[in-house]
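2024-03-11 09:14:02 DEBUG pipeline.ingest accepted 1 chain
2024-03-11 09:14:02 DEBUG pipeline.ingest length=92
2024-03-11 09:14:03 DEBUG pipeline.predict start
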Amino acid sequence: MNVVSREIRGRLLLALDAARPARLSTARAYGIVRDEGLAALPLQIEAELKYLVDKGYAEKFSADYWSITSKGVDLVQRTIPDDPGVIFEMGG
């Protein structure tokens, strides 16, 4: 499993959690990931956001906005078991 993808997913979930109850745009999500020093193209950011939707951790609104679900909040807060597809600690 690609560690960078897992780190990107974790960073995206943290950003979505920090933004709530507001929604996060794909462009802003890309900027956050880039600012964290993670190498990713905008298409990869969208793919990782779609992965989070498929897992039930995020939802998409309109063509460009995303938000965290209650399940995503639970994962961020560690009140549900860890998901091996998401890493919250950088480099690991």
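2024-03-11 09:14:41 DEBUG pipeline.report The two ends are 12 Å apart (CA to CA).
2024-03-11 09:14:41 DEBUG pipeline.predict end
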